[in-house]
Each structure stands twice: as C-alpha cells, then as structure tokens.
Amino acid sequence: MKKIKISPSILSADFSQLGKEIKRLEESDADMIHVDVMDGHFVPNLTIGPPVIKTLRKYTKLTFDVHLMISPVHKYIKDYADAGADIITIHPEATENLNKSISHIKELKKKVGVSLNPDTKIDVITDILNNIDLVLIMSVFPGFGGQKFIPKVVDKIKELNKIKKEKKLNFDIEVDGGINFSNSKTVIEAGANILVSGTTIFKENDGNLKKNIEKLRTI
Known about the structure:
Layout: E1 5-8, H1 18-27, E2 32-38, H2 50-56, E3 63-69, H3 77-83, E4 87-90, H4 98-107, E5 111-116, E6 134-138, H5 153-166, E7 172-176, H6 184-190, E8 194-197, H7 199-203, H8 209-218
C-alpha cells in the first residue's frame, strides 16, 4: 500500500504564531510543511516571502514544500532556495522557459514540482514528467484558502496516474484545494500520494492537528 503524505498548508495557520504552529504540525506527525507564496499579480492575494521562510526554517527539519504562485517566477527561484525551500513548485504559465526554470531548481539542489491549475491540461507537462519530482494538481483556482474542491480534477489525477504507471515514472502526485474528510479518499484512490490541506487540518475537531492529519491520511 502506498504511503500517503500530508502537507499542511500554513495559509490556514495563525500568522502571529507561525513558528509555534509549525512546531505543532511537526509534533502532530505532518510529513512536510506546505508554504503558499502569492504575489498579488499571478494570483489575487499576497502572502509570505523569503525572509519569513528563512525565519521559519529554524523551527523544524520537516520538508518545506514551497508553492510559488508568482510571475515572473524564474528570477526569484534562488531566493526561495536560499531561504530554505526543499521542494520548489512553479506554474508553467509563470515562466518564459519551463525547462530552463526546472534546470535552475535542480542546479540549486532542490526538488522540482510543476503545478497545474484546474483548467491547465496535462499535455503542457507530458514531455517533462521524467525530469521532475512532483506534479501539484490544483483542485481550486489558486489565490485563497478555504475554497471548495472542484470534482472534475479527479479525472485529471486519474489520467496523470495512468501516464505515470504506463511510463514507469517516479514523480509524486500532490493535490491542493478544498481537501477534506469527504473527498480525500476519492483523491487518494485516483492516484494522489500527497495531500495538501489547510482549513480541515487547522479547523476540524476543535483544531486537533494530529487527529485531523491522521484521519486524512487513513480515511
């Protein structure tokens, strides 16, 4: 049975206590920390930048799963690598040369992720799947936390998983957006092995992080 990893999104954490929140997630058996970076341009919201990530890095040894929703992304990749990102995920639409940006991330000794919005087709990345570590399927349109899951992306997860098996590739399939106890099983069965969740982890069961993480992983 495949190992399901949970990557809690700190977008739903208490921003006045981010260091403590990350420690709580580590103690609650989170597999990694999902950091949403938004620029108010590529997506309609602003979040944290490299200085904050660098500060948070000292609170945990967990993998920092950094999702860059910024454009143009290429010139900022090194800043996030230097700040402590372990996985750097970018959008094809946010770079003039996707292959060049992928190579740049690898040169910085970081894992590479590519994110697909709900309306971005898999065809965009088919020819680079053997050169990346992770595909992040967005199940909402990025920009805000707390949105409802878009069911049609389940077919995209299935299609991507089929390609992965047929070509015997080894990338992770991560899903982000509206993940909760009602849809996590469907997403896992479709082929995802990393689930990003914010609202459900931080708000359900009176904020019992450990219980919520374990429930998402095993439901």
